[in-house]
Amino acid sequence: EEVRRRHIRLHMEGALTARDKVGVQDFVLLDAHTSESAFLDNLRKRFRENLIYTYIGTLLVSVNPYQELGIYTLSQMELYQGVNFFELPPHVYAIADNAYRMMCSELTNHLILISGESGAGKTEASKKILQYFAMTCPMTDSLEIARDRLLLSNPVLEAFGNAKTLRNDNSSRFGKYMDIQFDFKGIPIGGHIIGYLIEKSRVVYQNHGERNFHIFYQLLEGGEEQLLAYLGLERDPQLYRYLAQAHGANESSMNDRNDWKTVSNAFAVIDFTEDDLENLFGIIASILHLGNVCFRENHQGCATIPVINEIKWIAKLLGVQPSALLEALTHRKIEAQTEEVICPLTLENSVYARDAMAKAVYGRTFTWLVNKINSSLVNKIWETSAWEFTKKTVIGLLDIYGFEVFDKNGFEQFCINYCNEKLQQLLIERTLKAEQAEYEMEGIEWEPIQYFNNKIICDLVEERHKGIISILDEECIRPGPASDLSFLEKLEEKVGKHAHFQTRKLAGPKGRKRIGWMEFRLFHYAGEVTYCTKGFLEKNSDLLYRHLKEVLCRSRNGILKECFLAAELENRRRSPTVGTQFKTSLSSLLEILISKEPSYIRCIKPNERKEPSKFDDFLIRHQIKYLGLMEHLRVRRAGFAYRRKYEHFLQRYKSLCPDTWPHWRGPPAEGVERLIKYIGYKPEEYKLGRTKIFIRFPRTLFATEDAFEFSKHQLVARIQATYKACLERRVYVKKRQAAIKLETHWRGALARKEAERRKWAVLIVRRFIKGFIQRDKPLCPDNEEFVVFVRKNYILNLRYHVPKNVLDKRWLRPPGILQNASDLLRKMCVRNLVRKYCRGITAERKALMQQKAVASAVFRGKKEGYAESLNKPFANSRIDEGDINPKVLQLIGNEKIQYGIPVIKYDRKGFKARQRQLILTQKAAYVVELAKIKQKIEYSALKGVSTSNLSDGFLVIHVSPGANKHKGDAILQCEHIFEVVTKLVMLVKKNIVHVVQGSLQFYISPGREGTIVFDTGPEEQIYKDKNGQLTVVSGCLGRE
Ligand SMILES: Nc1ncnc2c1ncn2[C@@H]1O[C@H](COP(=O)(O)OP(=O)(O)O)[C@@H](O)[C@H]1O
Ligand SMILES: [Mg+2]
């Protein structure tokens, strides 16, 4: 973008220097702005340098260069695209671009009004504008076809509606108003064309040096042999009366063959079918044939057609009955009361009928063509519903036939010039008059500028009942003999006093010479034109004999079928005259134009001879004058380039001032004042009116516009940000809601699950309780589960509570039902522990244990002190073998000593205590005193062993009487009484121990018994009592 701008600046500077040398590019900058000569000089200076465009403010003055200047290239188009109006040299593109940009930014409808006399370059300008839009507007693929059609509608319409005249080789013989439709993005999406009054008379007659419509020549020059043969045509215009009358039309200036190609291509693009083309060229050819129909007068004075070859061709091409056509051309139906009478026509009337038919057919075909093009320009997407509501805007292009003065001017010139008069009126209304009125209305100081208002001429032509058209219409329908001359007389009578009207009779002696008898003269805004009234009536009523109409209504040619509807025949009412029709269509055109924002292009013709670089001062001065350019310049100079309603100005630029952005609550005028103060308008730059702000120089507005353009970006960013935030928020809120919903559902699901679980738990608990209550009942469904559970639970629990060793007596209390199992288990467990324990202990210990077991069997619960002795382990022996006398050992011999212990022996008679050793072998117990064995008691002779139940260490070994060397029982006392007795029992392998209470008897010798009394007392004592008994008193420790 920056590069582009720089490029433009560079170019501008180049242009500026050129422009400085060559006058001024805007007449507003002209020093002598009131001088017509200065104006002309500037125009001439620029024209010499091929600078054909000059501004008056925003109005473009264009001088026809009559040569290709190379200023309509694509790069030129790009240059003007989107650039401020005054930044570049004047150009028709600048006007187009300005209108386009205004339309886009303000969504308003625009109009480019091109005016100027015939040959001044209006049509060219309108084509350039159309091309500019086509090339520079944004475009979508689907709309390219619309663009092409818009562009190509031009050559087709020109072929049928333009002709070479004395003024212009490509003179538009119809008025054309074209709407280019844009969508809200500025993309051209379609178009619409309105055609105005085609000059039909040209079909049958052309002035000297002029031609018929291009299409005839193009068809003959360019049409393929085959086509021409089909149409029955020869490749020579001179053979056709309608083309050959105009001698001296300089053919070399036209390139019909090339144009034919262009037109043919265009037909293909704008939706014309093969049939359409066949019908269309059939009509064109039939008109040529019609021109060649010759009439001859028979002796009754009636017209006949001697050669009917042409008739046959026409009948074939138009699809009508040859005989009917023949009759219609030479006869006329007259309705007499109830019946129709057919009467022959005179030669003159037949010629008239023929020409009328040619004109009518051509004229209506042209209308059909415009409609056809329109229907191809209608944007199909546009028509569908979605587009209907989008804002659409249009740029209108008006290219209408220009002001025309010939040597002989007829009805056509009258209409054309009237049309120009109306456009000039519009221009005056909208520029000079409206502008000045506005200043006054707005209370801006203003010195009125005089200008010529041509309303007076318009009124002369169109006023109801009093205007020329009304008078002409009246003459046409008036009963009685009416002629062009009677019309002229009526004119003289009714408008003779008008300052802008003159006839030969009314003119003074001076002017008289220049006006013929049949002529009247109008003083148009653009100059005086003398019209010949000849043919006015005929052309105005534009009559086509009913008979011919009927024939045409029955035509099988597709186009004519659409053009001539049977309904027309039924309608007995007179159709409005051509003049009135034209008047009405013009006023509706003006309505269209008034509703749009106008831009003006005023075209000037530099010379009458279509010559390049010829600058005819007189001619141009005249045009400057009648176009009102000087007045326009003066108003511009004194006035203000721009004005805007306060509301609109504020609405557009309010973003430039913090006070007015985003809303200004007060009156708009104050807002605008605040705004312009803020952006620094100088006092001379503007004026504040009642409802509008007036800005004197365009540059002020452009600067403002630039600033706005800049701020727009920021605004857009802000709007985007807000919008994006909004979108994001929407998304966020949606997500949040979704999350909440999800959560709700999830929570619900969880809660339901939980409820389920609780319900389940309740059931379980209930079953559990039921089971618990009935736990002791026999197994039934009610308690089954509970029992299983309890069982399982108990078993599982038991794992952690099994006793760790044999001595560990704890056991998990079983529930009632499991008592048995528990007992079994416990037993098993204990057994297992025992087994384990047993396995784990050493042989030695095992022996010891066995001994203890034996001790237990013997003493448990019987003798005092047993319990205390339990944890004192038994020794293998209490005497080392070394402490035993070797002699004793020898005596014992091979009997292995199992145990030995020091003991006190009490002898049987006196109970004297002696230190002895008790030695136990496998076979016997020995009481040993040093080296002597005092007593040997064989186990086999052992009768028993007695101990007391008290805590003394006494034992008595009873020996069976009669045993060898019987000495009596042995009374011993030792320290480890339980150990000794146990050892003994084990060796004897029989429980022979007798635990006595109170006293015991023993044998002193066989047959003689003694007694030992056991007692308790505070002190341990052993003594022989008076009775000779041994009394053993044990301490009663632990017992009390
Ligand atoms: N801008 C232009 N550049 C070159 N030649 C032009 C230009 N404008 C007009 N002409 C020439 O003048 C002739 C008449 O112009 P045209 O636009 O048909 O006039 P109008 O429509 O005003 O009667 C064109 O055929 C063309 O040869
Ligand atoms: Mg034209």
From TrEMBL:
PROSITE patterns: IQ, MYOSIN_MOTOR, TH1. Residues 863-1036 form the TH1 domain. The keyword tRNA-binding does not apply. Residues 23-709 form the Myosin motor domain. GO terms for cellular component: cytoplasm; microvillus; myosin complex; plasma membrane. SUPFAM superfamilies: P-loop containing nucleoside triphosphate hydrolases. GO terms for biological process: actin filament organization; actin filament-based movement; endocytosis. Gene3D superfamilies: 1.10.10.820, 1.20.5.190, 1.20.58.530, 6.20.240.20, Kinesin motor domain, Myosin VI head, motor domain, U50 subdomain. Keywords: Actin-binding, ATP-binding, Motor protein, Myosin, Nucleotide-binding, Repeat. One of its GO terms (molecular function) is ATP binding. InterPro entries: Kinesin_motor_dom_sf, Myosin_head_motor_dom-like, Myosin_TH1, MYSc_Myo1, P-loop_NTPase. ATP binds at G116, E117, S118, G119, A120, G121, K122, T123. Residues 586-608 are annotated as: Actin-binding. Pfam families: Myosin_head, Myosin_TH1. Belongs to the TRAFAC class myosin-kinesin ATPase superfamily. Myosin family. PANTHER family: MYOSIN, UNCONVENTIONAL MYOSIN-IH. This is Myosin IH. It comes from Myotis lucifugus (Little brown bat).
